[in-house]
Amino acid sequence: MVTKSTILSLFMALFCLIFYAYSAEIGQHPYVFEHRINFKGQEITARVKYLLFLPKSYNENTQQKWPLIMFFHGVEGVGDNIEIIKGKGIPMIVERDPNFPFITLSPQTPSPANAQWVWDEPTFIEVMTALLDQVIADYRVNANRIYLTGLSLGGGTTWNMAIYHPEKYAAIAPLCGGVSFPSKACAIKDVPVWAFHGAKDTAVSIWTTEVMVKALEDCGGNVRFTVYPDLGHDVWTVTYDNPELYDWFLSHSLKKEEIITNVKASGNLLIKWGYIKAR
Asked: Which pTM value belongs to this model?
């Protein structure tokens, strides 16, 4: 005989199964992305490890969409050990702050010895863009609020990703970027840029950022440039610890006007509420 308590137990079990099926894993976790590409006339599978962070309150409201920051590491992060990239930048920030009010995506560039396609610029951009598109499809991402940032080698990648697809990004923040593309800068004249560099940088000359900023200014671009007069290559510690950066990100959207109702203040981060006038 089936009792009411048995029915109730079965109902609760079914509810739990449904809840966990639709709940995403919060916090920062490693994953692997695979994408078929044509490289040197051959169809191969590009394999990329990445870290994905979901805020602590991500599962509380299934209608809520979140802004996303895509972060690119420096040269020391290249390889197969995904744990290395947690030591700097956005992955380090979210490790210590489970309430960080953005989804964050931090791909790891594979070693060129095992993945020669990383040297091919269009292919590399294709793979990273496909990864971003997959995350947008799988999670509740506000597609009007996708932001790029990166340090050193990743600063150069930040410039390049935006140049290839300026229509996708609400704003970008390259730090001490190792590559410069001044001849292509006008492609992102409508993308808000906040660039950072240390005046005493001996690893990557400040010239690489200066020429990009100058080229954007000549195009009438929306660019802001912070030079740290007493810093060398490490500008990421002070920059990513500054809540003003995240306020600045959220002040830009691909949509002309958008009400921010889907983020909460976290720690020392000051998140501004209300109407945000976008570019």
From this structure: 0.85
